[in-house]
Predict the 3D structure of the following.
Amino acid sequence: MTLIGTSVKRVEDKRFLTGKGQYTDDIKIPGMTYAYFIRSPHAHANIKSIDISTASSEPGVVEIITGKDVAEVNGVPAGWQVDFINGETMKEPKHPLLVPDTVKHVGDAVAMVIAESYGAAKDAAEKVFIDYEVLPAVVSPSDALKEGAPLVHADCPSNLCFDWQLGNEKADVDKAIEDSHHVTKLEFINQRVVPNAMEPRSAIGHYEEHNGKYTLYTSTQNPHLIRLLMCAFVLGIPEHKVRVVAPDVGGGFGSKIFHYTEEAMVIWASQRINRPIKWTAERSESFLTDAHGRDHVTKAELGLDKDGNFTALRVNTQANLGAYISTFAPAVPTYLHGTLLQGLYTTPLIHIHVDAMFTHTNAVDAYRGAGRPEATYLLERLVDTAALEMNIDPAELRLKNFIDPFDGVEQPGYQTQVALQYDSGNYQPVLKKALGMVGYEQFRKDQEAAKSSGKLLGIGFSTYIEACGIAPSAVVGALGARAGLFESAQVRVQPTGKVSVYSGSHSHGQGHETTFAQIVADRFGIPLEDVEIVHGDSEAVAFGMGTYGSRSLAVGGSAIVKSMDKVIEKGTKIAAHLLEANPDDLEFAGGKWTVKGTDKSVAFGDVSLTAYVPHNYPEGLEPGLDFSSFYDPTNFTYPFGCHIAIVEIDKETGKVTMKRFIAVDDVGNVINPMIVDGQIHGGLAQGIGQALLEGAIYSDDGQLINGTYMDYVMPRADDFPMFEIDRTVTPCPHNPLGVKGAGEAGCIGSTPAVVNAVMDALKDYGIHDVEMPVTSEKVWNILNQ
Amino acid sequence: MIPSQVAYRKPDNINDALQLVNDLADDCKILAGGHSLIPVMRLRLNDPENLIDITGIAELKVIRDNENSITIGACATHAEISRNEAIQQNAPMISKAAGMIGDIQVRNFGTIGGSIAHADPAADWPAVLLAANASIVIKNASGQREVDIDQFFKGLFTTACDDGDIITAIRIPKTAFNKNSTYVKFVQPASRFALVGCAVALDKNSEIRVAFNGVSATPFRDNGIEKSLMNGDDAATATANTADGVSVMSDHFAKSNYRKHLAGVYARKALSELM
């Protein structure tokens, strides 16, 4: 029996598809109250007064809390610290739970109305009278750094949170660029996107006076980290008095990694009123307050010699952090972005400078890919643009500059110019496979032929690498992380041979309950149904770092393997005793221990029962069959791939239609191909969505103009062709499963492929770039300028 | 997304509905499907004290095939309209437009009367009804009147209806031009409403009607195109100055110059199906 590598249907889907999922908002606790947060309608304003007197006596109102009430409580912290180039610590202004004085973005929470029903809370909120003195706002990253720009935080002059650099000596890179035969330059905006998880954020705070314990139910990707940040940094509640539960969570895409003020507020206020409090975001609140993604302004230059070899890469990025530092925001434009600029190429000299600044907008943080899509976008746009400018085929240019294959075992990992050492890679096959799938030569003929029929066809490439499975704790600690990035797993074999696995990973759509069960069932030789994956509850799971950065299988799965190793090691001793054999003479396979070369064997279930009913048992061995492990990897994992987009442009309307999308990804070994395909599909939809459809639009005074589904374009199935996907397999050399991670690949690789395809279609129009999202209007303007 | 408290009433006959609407005057809104009204109530952009749900009135759901016209009850759903055979035969653009509104859920619940009473300039019905030379049957406590479609849409979310009025039916004349008619739209990619919608009903021997929604705050007929076509000009010539003299809307999906251009493109698309 082998389950690894087979497309087992997802065990969680029945409950999701039949409406039986249990999300935070589904939880009801006797005596529960409901909270509504009053949010600032202004991007920047002084609160002159808040009058709660009328609202407080409205029917059903339990309590109204304002910023003054929580003035002594700490704000939510940054989980990652990045220092200025000169060594100073980044500016870290307080992010208060409720704003007492000056609001800093539209949606900033000003007051919390708690009532017997959500409707009553909302009705009463309309009778809280707040007098604002509206102040000038700054929205764009470049404006924020200008002399005399409105300051977001009085204690952060010039709005600069930090600057940062990475790579080779700047002077060496400058000189190499200057000496290059050709320099391709691009300046562009990697626009801000709204995550739009299907389930809005939701949190329930439940304080129980009888034992002084708190329970936080919250729609999060990492319950343990929320507990750590909230207890240690915000509320000062002892951690053992707090249970955090993340039940079914309906998507996150990064936006539910972070510790949000509402989580701390429901816990704090629950103790104050001694009743449970539920808050669930409305979709409009999600638009305004779920941490957004991207929002970089980048200038990038790639030097090439006359043969097209890359000589140097120089990048300058302005990263908009929004009004406050969200949990992992400082890491995104720096260690998750600058470190990826080697790409798949042998570029010998690389330098990146980043300025990260505050603006009067919602916070920006990790969003599917987190820094890596931005790095891939700039690099892959540069490569296709260089190919066009130097009249070299874009596929040829890539093949010329690819790093040679290395498996990380026989050949060492590849040391980049930007800190990371790639684990294993073999880059030509993904490109060649994708070219074969697309029928490249025929496409170029079709492209010429289409011109005469009023259609413009274009092809765009992207050959990307990403760093997943974050990561070795010591490494991320040295880079500023304020948390470890290991994972824990407990494998509890029950007396009857059924297995409960407690994982610190957290599934919010990825299918852990299936994939992890496949690994366990396969290893123990037991049916899939005999394995239960438990996650998302800090009282059930020892500890966990949660799910993001495509880390669940590479890190969390490896922790499970470690615990299973321990189970088998101990089980072998018990089996040897039962078989009256030497443990070294046993082999475990197919769900039983067998004395090698004989038919004498004992089944997994018999050994587990013996472990808990140890009447006939090895001397000195503890009863039980239950092991925990913490796994801290030795390196990131480095999936890679090639994406090719083919677009058609209608010259009359400028409308861009995706005709084909080919993705060949190498995510290492694959446990469940169907789930990996699903992850790739979803990632592609998000990546292509950013290229063609999505983008948050703030007005100059800081209003989010497209904060509803009537105006913000979410991609839909009919925006896409059937994706053509395939794989190569280059196993990860440093984790036991050989897996690399698949959650973000689609989103990282696809965006530049689409824009490159648009540029290829428009190559006769003498333009260098088109701003994302590539709307029909923008293309029509290019066609008619 | 919880609306304010509202009193809900669902009369089962038109006289009771008219009485309620008359008595409650400006403190009520008429609910006829709710795909426009409920969202604005949930956003608390509209806080009526009373909702009069007229979808329980059987006669308002009837689509009647008369000798010279088809009358569509105001509470007929988009889905019912799209599959009505008499409409398919006599005014194909109406069937086509009905099938292009929203998604299946919207079409199964939303009604034609509710939609036109809301008068969203980007909705699909206005251009189609203008091109069809429809008339709107309106009742109130003092009687019934029939408003010519050219006089019905007054501006952004504004119609010829007054407080106390209920739209009861939409009358589509059986004409040669309606038999040869179509509707096309360039969708706004988020809402899938019409960024530009164009309906054309064309009979070269009698009348040609060309109407747009999505282009300006008020849906309109383009008389320039109609006259040019009646004079025998080809589509390219006739549409060269599409939407001239109209105040064209502008937003982050389409500034007015691009929208105006699209109006011409979509007029030609529609005409190419009919000529």
